[in-house]
Amino acid sequence: MKAFKILKNSYYDSVTLMSTTVRLKKELNFKELVMFMGTEMNKDMIKSVGLYHEELKAAEPNDLMLAVMMDEDNPHWVDNILESLSAKKTTVKESDKVYKTIYQTIDDLNPNLAIISVPGIYAANEAYKALEKNLHVMLFSDNVSVEDEIQLKEIGIKKNLLVMGPDCGTAIINGKGLCFANQVRQGNIGLVAASGTGLQEVTVIIDRFGGGITQAIGVGGRDLTEKVGGRMMLMGLDALDQDEQTEVIVLISKPPHQSVLEEIITRLKSIKKPVVLCLLDANLDTKIKNVYFVSTLTEAAIQSLHLTGHETPDLLNMDIETKDIINKYRNQFKPTQKFVKGLFCGGTLTAETLSVLRPMLNHITSNVAKKEYEKMHDPLLSNGHNLVDLGDDIFTQGKPHPMIEPSIRLERILSEAKNPETAVLLLDFELGIGSHIDPVGVTLETLVEAFNIAKKDGRQLAIVAYVCGTDKDYQDLKQSEDRLKDIGVIVAQTNAHAAIIAGELLKEVKK
Length: 511
Fold this sequence. Notes:
Layout: E1 2-7, H1 14-27, E2 32-37, H2 40-48, E3 64-69, H3 77-89, H4 102-109, E4 113-116, H5 120-132, E5 136-139, H6 146-159, E6 163-164, E7 170-173, E8 176-179, E9 186-193, H7 196-208, E10 213-218, H8 231-242, E11 248-253, H9 258-268, E12 275-279, E13 291-294, H10 297-307, H11 320-332, E14 339-344, H12 347-357, E15 364-366, E16 385-389, H13 393-396, H14 410-418, E17 422-430, H15 441-456, E18 462-468, H16 477-486, E19 490-491, H17 495-505
Helix pairs in contact: 1-3, 5-6, 7-10, 12-17, 14-15
């Protein structure tokens, strides 16, 4: 049975609702559960999952919409949900002051940066207010129009203020991680990135080998499109060039529009400091003094470390132990086991894996691919070599992002384990602020089950994983890696290293 409820004037932020939904669905034994504020966009999202009712039409943006599907009638279902949400709210100290507008915050705290995470239809307006008051802006919200993005960034440039985003998930400013970020030491390497997990990957490798960060500026995934023109990437590049603490600059992105790439190349010719340029899958045949072109996030981190006097091992090579493990699996795969199935939480890590595996495996597809012949047109359907970004909109409508709630990946892991063609499962885990409190812990039982499913079917399943984090992240990097190793998972040093291991495992069954 289905049930619906509108709670008038009951505002909850989207992160609270999304992160609570999965847990409540399990605890209260609901078949389905959605909790959204009453915006028109959210009503459309409820329709997309088949739980909409005309009763919800009356909901307004400040009202909470609840919709459930239950096997049995539960007259107290609304009270059960509210009890859990109220417990979540009480984690805020009573002494903490809650501000309802940017203006109240400015009057009381005199900040210089605003993080904006409200529905997209309101986000641009809040960003305009922040810029009006001379605040740098990190625009976490998506669904902001390109026209607003351009105008906001133009205002930021004129006022010498950063406008990071929209849809900017990661930044580290003056040593403070914002939204999704890892705990890394401060140092002399500055970064600008149109990529959240790409920025995280490079910063954690830099930290691991003794380097540190001055600023890590996220610019949003659309910044390097033709319309936006790389406005904030170029501004961030200039800012780091002028920053006395920054000695090396790293730029990270998926391939920009050709006109934007040409603009970046032109600007790089006037930059005085060494620049490491990592534009995944971009075709670059030019040479510029003091500019180092690399093809993976791992190489970007290694190059920036070397330029600042830090030595690193070759993080993409296989040690003898890993080679022995690879050979063991190769000899045990059944003839039907031919494919790698990548299930990722990080979009850029998915893209990097595609770039690394392309020359190693034939006919590999992904829902992040730009080339038509590599596009996975139905990410819900497993077919051949697949690399799936589970943060894609098709998976997150009405649900939290897998970095917030990695349990949404568990069912797909088991499905791929049951597939007799699956040889390798390839996974990523992101630690740090904003991410789940224990992404490895909630996945371990499912991975053991995946191993057992294959074993009962007479198959040997290889699981390769990479944990993106530092020893300072509260989820504990070493413990996370050790728990994976203890159940038989092959743990890689970096995301690109994980991709290479997956490719090597299947090298002899390449089609």
